Amino acid sequence: MRVASIGLFGLLQLLGATAAQIINDTTPSLAFKVVSGGNDNYFLRDNLTSAQMLLTSANSTSVSRRLVVALPAGNSGALTYFLPAGTSANGTLGVSLVDGSLRSATADYFNVGVQVDLAFDGNATLGVTILGAVRAMRDYVEGGGVMHDIFNYTLGEYNETAVRLHRQWINTTSPSSSDYNGANLYLSVPADSSARLSVIPGNNGTWTPPTVHILVPQNGSGTGTGIVTVKVVTNETSLAGLDTQELFLPEGTNGTQALHTALQGLASGDLAAAKQVSFLTYTDKFTAGGWRFLTYFGRDSLIALRLLMPTLTSEAIESALGAVIERANSTGALCHEETIGDYASFVNMGNGHPELGNEPYYDYKMIDTDLLLLPAMSHYFLDLPQGQGRAEQFFAQNATLQNGTYAEILNRTVFYNLERATPFSQSPNISNLIGLRPGQPVGNWRDSNEGIGFGFYPFDVNTALVPASLRATQALVTAGLLNFSRLDASQIGEVASVWEAQAPALFDVTVNGTEAEARLQNFVRAANLSSALLEGSGNSSAGSESGGVSFYALSLMEDGTPVEVLNSDTSFNLVYGANVSREFLQHVVDALQPYPRGLLTNIGMVVANPAYDSNTTNIDILDRAAYHGTVVWSFQQGLMASGLARQLGFCSRDNTTTVDTNPTPSPAPSWCSDADFVQSLRDAQTRLWTSIQGAKSEIYSEVWSYAFDNSTNTFSVVDLASLSPSGTESDAIQLWSYGFLGLLDPSGNSTRS
Fold first, then answer.
1. I want to staple 639 with a disulfide (CB 3.0 to 4.6 A). Which of 201, 424, 562, 571 is the partner?
2. What pLDDT score was predicted for residue 749?
3. Sign of the C-alpha dihedral, residues 326, 329, 333, 336?
4. Residues 280, 246 contacting (CB under 8 angstroms)
């Protein structure tokens, strides 16, 4: 059950410090702004709290103005809409943040959060308001405006200068403080503001919300400004953040010239992106992104870790690895998402276990997260200087979220993965691939229902991650870092070899040249593109009539039918694969052609391209408005760029541009001796980076879509939320997108900001 959490503020209050003293002593360690997707995002962290505040940008054409406050503490906060009212109702409403006014805030019963001063240029009415769980807020935004009534709030005290809206936690157990044990949103009018509040209580309890007007007097010319302070607080425990010096290696760390270049401005926090990563990382876990995913996601942590690892301190790396191990279940499966705070109470009730109160709920539905941990650990302990000599102490550490040492918990995951991989090694047919869990429509990073084309066996899991996890386990056993009597390194290697040799071919798709051209022409018409995009961009292996097209399916249906969607998931093989064949690399070269023959636009690499699919319904299902459709995910670009650098480094390492440390296999891959083929890989790498540079201003955000200009045959960035039928939007900052901090463009151009 919930125990009131007091954090630093509560402790100081118990010791006699006043709220004023505490506020005066707070100095933000992080304070920055990011403009993205028609929203102004403000971030703050000090010794009281961490918070993100989102406000609709002034140039937005939306009638309403949305305010979001998201706190990593309990993954809690508030969402509200301000609507024009009175004389403003026929026009637009301006709501802007007063510069420098975002600051941490406290309230009774150890409530901590943030407050901000907002300037209104006309009368406004408080629209839909959700208090408490960020997940409930996201469900409303992306769920067609539907919200469970358990998340309704109540009206607290109010007058013409102040009002308090309150939502009590679902499992509140302390009656004396129940009126504050939850989330509170305060509106108040500063003494020097002319604004006033008008509150009309609802007449049906929590079923009818109160009507709250913000009244702004107008002058003779019909203009005026009123300042209103908005404060959002909860009594969840604030998290201890990793500052940039704890997170990143210091400049001057021994290493290559590429590492020296990459570390510039990171530990010092001089680079804005370093502060943004710091906001998302904490001593006991990494969070995925703000505002929608400001909580733990295992997959996101591990992929981000793999890309950023060369630049990170041992302490930061082990914080991320430990967080994943801590959340393993009794079978060895790894947690996808951690649900905490009030939404955990909601989920536990829905699962028929209200007695669990707000105990965290761990989601294990994904099949890829389980396979990402061992490769990250192997890279850290065996390849990178930061991990040398640290394995024994790390594995001996006692977990805090469950019983056992890290070694004992990891033991379960190792055997869980090996047991799932063994059947295919004995009989390499489709039915022995790793499919989605029973009753689940998702299982890999493309975790929307349509993300893998409604398939059952994801490409990345089966061709890249299963063998990568086995090879990493083999390496750790061989090095003596994993020492379990039932593990034999050579046997693990034999299982991995079967997966490496047999799995990719099951996903191979070939479309003859004539048919490929016909499908391309149909696609450009259906997608409202121009056939001019097809002129001069093909080659004999990527869509010309004389050749044909070969690529790897996005997934396989349960009966083995391929989902014939060209995709970016070969990036996983390039980063994690131990034995990537020449044939596989040729598929990568072919995919890294201009869209729609390939994946590359002038604003980035799209993650799915249904142009060659015989199932033409996927043209609409995976279009530019779909979360995993013909859209650009920044982390996928980073993964592809990292993978190409790794593969090319097996032939000749460039210490001025390759930041990561990847041991060269012995002997080197046979394709390294073919200069023409190696050059084709380098050309593909150049095309990829040119594409990435076309939208460098978006590089740390989550995902974006495009608009196409027929007059210039070029693409421009469009916010996904403006197109998405479900209102799905992009996070302004996304942890795995910062993998670019561990990458350098071989051409010498910078992606940093």
1. 571
2. 93
3. negative
4. no
